[in-house]
């Protein structure tokens, strides 16, 4: 490393820590919610996670715009144009809210048709619970759009603390409301509402986060706040955001869509298999937290460095990125592999589901380094504005390896465990290799945004 590398490592960690805390809180709250729902039964657990994944997939149509906001704000902030930063946030927010409301309305109208299209092969008990839970997930979309665009715009200025406020308020209210509404509190005359209570909590905590985040950004007078609010859309600003955001949105749409399509394959192996996979995937969220935090921080720092034409700084950020990933993921995989039996018991006491979940947690643990390295290099390329490459390679690796590969192997072997193990490896390791090679070439240093 050059003498500047330790400085960049410290800077990267400093910016990543709030994002790390944010992601960790978000994942832990998700684990708690999933564990609470899991105690209702495997059908409820499977239905709730499949609904959340389906809505999360469709949210990519507008959440992907947040990447464009981070990159464009980072470039403008690095160039010292503070008025431009306000303009980008204003236009991004309007666009995100409009798209999210439109998608929400369409989903509410076509709920049964969409569930039938993707999950028609599920057991009837799972489908009944999905019909019950899905509307609550849909109603949360505008709230997610708001909090995402506020956090991503502030990250472009190097501020990860703002999004942490929204996440912390969401998680605290989630941990409180979810068990209360699911199981009830007799001395408060709150009845037990089961999965309906989980749905009410799901949507409520997201709007609580909107309220808390709005109060915070106005109270602290964040630099993204426009001097004057109006409903006018500015074509030039929106096109600049879309130019960067659309490939990222397509990438996320294809990526999250892969998870949904994968579930249509896994359904054929039964509800126990599916419930075990959902627990494994949920715990994999913790494994991914460090690399996601480093990736987000890298995107912001790379954008700022290239915006100020500091190419040497950008290269040192990459070295710092790699150093952190190697240090962290040499430990994480081992901990989760051997700790799997204890961790999965947080979700369920059903022996069959526990056995399935242990297998999947250990599978994700084995793949952890490839996942971490892949996400870290993605942060570099996105920070440079090279989102088309990540979109194309993600689509090929995910759909070719994880989805098509798993489907083919499941058909040939009739063994979902073997199919998943090979499919995941094809996906994660191929992307880690491709992104590493792309970053090493260095062309990303000269991309114009």
UniProtKB/TrEMBL annotation:
Membrane topology: Multi-pass membrane protein
Bilayer-spanning residue ranges: 12-36, 56-77, 97-119, 131-152, 164-185, 197-219, 323-347, 359-377, 389-410
Localization (cell): Cell membrane
Gene Ontology CC terms: plasma membrane
PANTHER family the UniProt entry points to: FMN_FAD EXPORTER YEEO-RELATED (PTHR43298:SF2), MULTIDRUG RESISTANCE PROTEIN NORM-RELATED (PTHR43298)
Family to which this protein belongs: Belongs to the multi antimicrobial extrusion (MATE) (TC 2.A.66.1) family.
Name this protein carries in UniProt: Probable multidrug resistance protein NorM
Native species: Congzhengia minquanensis
Lineage: Bacteria, Bacillati, Bacillota, Clostridia, Eubacteriales
């Amino acid at each position: 490393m050059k003498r500047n590398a330790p400085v960049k490592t410290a800077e990267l960690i400093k910016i990543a820590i709030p994002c790390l805390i944010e992601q960790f809180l978000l994942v832990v709250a998700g684990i708690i919610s999933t564990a609470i729902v899991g105690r209702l039964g495997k059908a409820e657990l499977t239905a709730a996670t499949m609904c959340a994944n389906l809505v999360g997939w469709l949210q990519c149509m507008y959440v992907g715009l947040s990447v464009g906001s981070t990159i464009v704000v980072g470039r403008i902030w690095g160039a010292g144009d503070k008025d431009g930063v306000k303009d980008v946030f204003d236009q991004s927010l309007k666009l995100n809210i409009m798209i999210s409301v439109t998608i929400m309305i369409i989903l509410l109208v076509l709920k049964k048709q969409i569930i039938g299209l993707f999950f028609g092969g599920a057991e009837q008990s799972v489908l009944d619970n999905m019909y019950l839970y899905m509307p609550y997930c849909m109603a949360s979309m505008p709230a997610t759009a708001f909090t995402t665009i506020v956090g991503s715009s502030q990250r472009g200025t190097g501020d990860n603390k703002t999004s942490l406020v929204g996440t912390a308020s969401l998680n605290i209210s989630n941990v409180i409301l979810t068990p209360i509404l699911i199981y009830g509190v007799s001395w408060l005359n709150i009845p037990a509402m089961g999965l309906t209570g989980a749905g009410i909590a799901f949507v409520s905590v997201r709007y609580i986060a909107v309220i808390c985040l709005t109060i915070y950004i106005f109270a602290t007078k964040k630099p993204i706040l426009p001097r004057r609010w109006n409903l006018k859309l500015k074509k030039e600003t929106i096109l600049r955001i879309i130019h960067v955001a659309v490939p990222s949105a397509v990438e996320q749409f294809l990526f999250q869509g892969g998870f949904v399509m994968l579930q249509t394959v896994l359904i054929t192996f039964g509800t126990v298999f599916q419930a075990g996979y959902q627990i494994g995937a949920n715990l994999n969220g913790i494994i991914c937290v460090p690399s996601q935090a480093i990736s987000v921080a890298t995107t912001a720092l790379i954008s700022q460095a290239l915006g100020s034409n500091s190419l040497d700084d950008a290269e040192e950020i990459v070295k710092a990125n790699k150093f952190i990933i190697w240090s962290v993921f040499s430990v994480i995989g081992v901990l989760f592999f051997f700790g799997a039996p204890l961790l999965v018991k947080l979700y369920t006491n059903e022996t069959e589901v526990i056995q399935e979940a242990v297998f999947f947690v250990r599978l994700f643990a084995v793949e952890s380094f490839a996942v971490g390295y892949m996400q870290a290099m993605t942060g570099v390329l996105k920070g440079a504005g090279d989102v088309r490459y990540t979109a194309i390679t993600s689509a090929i690796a995910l759909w070719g390896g994880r989805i098509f590969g798993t489907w083919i192997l499941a058909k040939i072997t009739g063994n979902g465990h073997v199919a998943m193990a090979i499919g995941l490896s094809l996906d994660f390791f191929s992307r880690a290799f491709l992104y590493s090679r792309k970053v090493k070439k260095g062309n990303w240093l000269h991309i114009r945004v």
